[in-house]
Design brief:
This protein is of the alpha/beta class. It folds into two domains: about 5-385, TIM Barrel (Alpha-Beta Barrel), CATH 3.20.20.210; about 430-755, TIM Barrel (Alpha-Beta Barrel). It is about 40% helix and about 10% strand. The radius of gyration is 26 Å and the shape is globular. About 50% of the residues are buried. The model has no long low-confidence stretch (mean pLDDT about 95). Pfam families: Meth_synt_1 (PF08267), Meth_synt_2 (PF01717). Catalyzes the transfer of a methyl group from 5-methyltetrahydrofolate to homocysteine resulting in methionine formation. Keywords: Amino-acid biosynthesis, Metal-binding, Methionine biosynthesis, Methyltransferase, Transferase, Zinc.
């Protein structure tokens, strides 16, 4: 009989309880004991929910306080030297957020995207004197905690191959020896779990599909040969990508008891499934999409599973989501304000577990046992396909008439720079920020009250005008050269636009974790996208009226809006991005017409959206860069186009960024030690660039000397005319008491540099 399985459950809670617990703890409103008690109750609630949903393989150790990679670093004593004098939660959160006290400033560890998702993980730092060894065994603790409630779980942990390849070493280490010690530490963990008779452990190796070399597969076989000795049964878990033939061959012979395949991102024939399952005790098929929020086509999936089941023993089959449900919201039944028609299309984590259970029951007891559920599912999908707003003739005609010249700026950057400088008259090393300024509880309350119609429009606008004026005056007083309006009217850089574009709808409870306590609520793209009216002109124009200095128009780019939304699944993503590009192009036209001379089109997800398989890179780069240029190429030569990117590894991607042809690009770089500068030693980036010198993801306040040194590092590979001065990212999540001194120091560092080069 097939079994229902889950790989991971959202950690934040249906009402973002984890966010509340974290922020209460960080703000001193809860002690360690209270924090532990609350987070334990949340874990138990989620285990009980999964059990009641009929899931037979329930994950544990999948609910970290901050990040699952950080948990593994703590588990195996992989603590960078600068944190070792700390302990407990103080140490744990210092690694994630940094530590700022009257006696010390400790920078946080770097964060980067978890493969091609919008979740951010802590990047492991490997040091010469590190010796991986099992620390406090929280994997065992979580298992025993669930067992107290008669819930049998399957612990889940990031595997050694993935952890090792995600890490960075800033000093020379013996990588071979380090990996061997790491594997031995994992083996010790598995031995301890076997000693208390844990039946299965899920080891996640998402690095496995990514076009590895032969020596990687040799290492995988050696690693799991050791790990499988005196161990619980190992479910070797891959996701996010198709396995190539070399990976499949390795997986077939790998000494593990079961394997999980992502059958949404990967296309595996029933014969391939049967071949892989031949020597295994179990094969887990991830057939329900763990990364989107649409109802699955259960009839289609069941047809595939039925053929697979005919080729192997039913007892071996586990039915599961494609990956952890970390990437979707918790419970669609909580959504009360969505059009009832659209609401039926949604499947959050709870509903996806229901789909897993329906498929499992159909395989085990026959499709007749779930006939009502299958019929209802097909009715919903048919209704979705026939929705009248899906396709707009006017938009389709416009897209068909896009010409090559619409995607190219007509003059070179060198010519444009001369015209822009004549117009803007900026100094060397111009100072700016990325867009948003701190959003206080009061501002968030005002936005919420306006949305709920508790305050009239004129009162709301007066408050936003006052806040915008405050932000403009603050920047002028600091000595900034290019200003921003602060974005106090915006809830989120994607959701804000989704609320104003046709083809989107917003949710109330569609929250997902981005990192730590940071949650985002992606808008939902369900139909063709059009811009009915200007979206940003009113507030940007108001800000510009307050100052003689240039104020940037602030937009989010087409690829990022798409990547950070839940996207319709009936047309190619490239087509969705082109529709968005046309909407942004129209907005840029209106901003320029309103007298805005600098327009920033943020693309922080540009690198993140790159396919994991290199064989698919060229196609993505072609359409994504074309979409950016389609959005930005309709402006005059003296209008300056900026873009911004963050959390990105650019060293193998710099040529694609060059193709965007933005006049100025700002990039997150301070937390990675300006590592992106390595790219410019081999590729001469032609346009202007602002490598971030203020890490806004940490409460630490960088001093002038630190930022000055980072700018000097940048000038080793950039010309002085190219270099801009800016933070890593927007300042929305920081407090004013952190932002004021940090930006003062940043402006002072730029002025110090100007005095050297004048």
């Amino acid at each position: 009989m097939a079994t229902a399985s889950n790989l991971g459950f959202p950690r934040i809670g249906a009402n973002r309880e984890l966010k509340t617990y974290l922020e209460n703890y960080w703000n001193g409103h809860a002690n360690d004991e209270t924090f532990y008690e609350h987070t334990s109750k949340l874990r138990i609630k989620h285990w009980k929910l999964q059990k009641s949903a009929g899931i037979q393989h329930i994950p544990s150790y999948d609910a970290p306080y901050y990040d699952h990679v950080l948990d593994v670093l703590e588990l195996f004593s992989l603590i960078p030297f600068r944190f070792r004098h700390l302990d407990g939660l103080t140490q744990y959160f210092a690694m994630a957020r940094g530590l700022s006290t009257s006696v010390e400033q400790i920078p946080a560890m770097e964060m980067t995207k978890w493969f091609d998702t919008n979740y951010h993980h802590i990047t492991p730092e490997f040091e010469k004197d590190m010796h991986p060894q099992l620390n406090h065994n929280k994997v065992k603790e979580r298992y025993l905690e669930a067992l107290q409630y008669d819930i049998q779980t399957r612990p889940v942990i990031v595997g050694p191959l993935t952890l090792f390849q995600l890490g960075k070493s800033y000093e020379s280490i013996d990588h071979s020896l380090f990996l061997q010690q790491l594997i031995e530490a994992y083996h010790e963990l598995l031995n301890e779990l076997a000693a208390i008779h844990i039946p299965w452990i899920q080891i996640d190796e998402p690095i496995f599909p990514l076009n590895q070399q032969d020596d990687f597969y040799d290492m995988a076989e050696k690693t799991y040969t050791l790990l499988s000795k005196n161990s619980p049964k190992i479910l070797f878990t891959t996701y996010f990508s198709q396995l190539n033939k070399n990976a499949l061959a390795c997986l077939k012979s790998l000494p593990c008891h079961g394997i999980h395949l992502d059958c949404v991102r990967g296309d595996y024939t029933p014969d391939t499934i049967a071949s892989l399952a031949k020597e295994k005790e179990a094969i887990s098929l991830g057939v329900v999409n763990g990364r989107n929020i649409w109802r699955a086509d259960l009839k289609h999936i069941l047809s595939y599973l039925t053929i697979c089941s005919e080729k192997l023993d039913h007892e071996k089959l586990m039915i599961a989501p494609s990956c952890s449900l970390l990437h979707v919201p918790v419970d669609a039944s909580l959504e009360e304000k969505i059009d009832p028609h659209l609401h039926t299309w949604l499947a959050y984590a709870v509903e996806k577990l229901g789909e897993v259970r329906i498929l499992t029951k159909a395989l085990s007891e026959g499709s007749a046992s779930v006939n009502t559920a299958l019929s209802e599912n097909q009715h919903i999908l048919q209704d979705k396909r026939q929705h009248p707003d899906l396709h707009k003739k006017e938009l389709r005609a416009r897209m068909a008439n896009i010409k090559k010249e619409d995607t190219i700026r007509q003059t070179s950057f060198r010519e444009r720079r001369t015209l822009q400088q004549k117009k803007l008259k900026l100094p060397l090393f111009p100072c700016t920020t990325i867009g948003s300024f701190p959003q206080t509880k009061e501002i968030r309350r005002v936005r919420s009250d306006f949305r709920k119609r508790k305050i009239p429009a004129h009162e709301y606008e007066q408050i936003i005008q006052k806040e915008t004026t405050k932000v403009i005056n603050f920047q002028e007083d600091l000595g900034m050269n290019v200003l921003v309006h602060g974005e106090s009217e915006r809830n989120d850089m994607v959701e804000y636009f989704g609320e104003q574009l046709e083809g989107f709808f917003s949710t109330q409870h569609g929250w997902v974790q981005s990192y730590g306590s940071r949650c985002v609520k992606p808008p939902v793209i369900f139909a063709d996208i059009m811009r009915p009216t200007p979206m940003t002109v009113k507030w940007i124009s108001y800000a510009q009226s307050l100052t003689e200095l240039p104020v940037k128009g602030m937009l989010t780019g087409p690829t990022t809006i798409m990547q950070w939304s839940f996207v319709r699944d009936d047309i190619p993503r490239s087509e969705v991005a082109r529709q968005l590009a046309l909407a942004i192009r129209d907005e840029i036209y209106d901003l320029e017409k309103a007298g805005i001379s600098i327009i920033q089109v943020d693309e922080p997800a540009f690198r993140e959206a790159l396919p994991l398989q290199r064989s698919q890179w060229n196609e993505y780069i072609q359409w994504s860069t074309e979409c950016f240029r389609l959005a930005t190429s309709g402006v005059a030569d003296d209008t300056q186009i900026h873009t911004h990117m963050c959390y990105s590894e650019f060293n193998d991607f710099i040529e694609a960024i060059t193709k965007l042809d933005a006049d100025v690009i700002s990039i997150e770089s301070s937390r990675s030690g300006m590592e992106l500068l390595k790219a410019f030693t081999t590729v001469a980036y032609p346009n202007a660039i602002g490598p971030g010198i203020y890490d806004i993801h940490s409460p630490n306040i960088p001093d002038q000397e630190h930022m000055y040194r980072l700018l000097k590092d940048a000038l080793r590979v950039l010309d002085k005319e190219q270099l801009w001065v800016n933070p890593d990212c927007g300042l929305k999540t920081r407090k004013w008491k952190e932002v004021r001194p940090s930006l003062q120091n940043m402006v002072a560092a730029a002025q110090q540099l100007r005095e050297e080069y004048m």
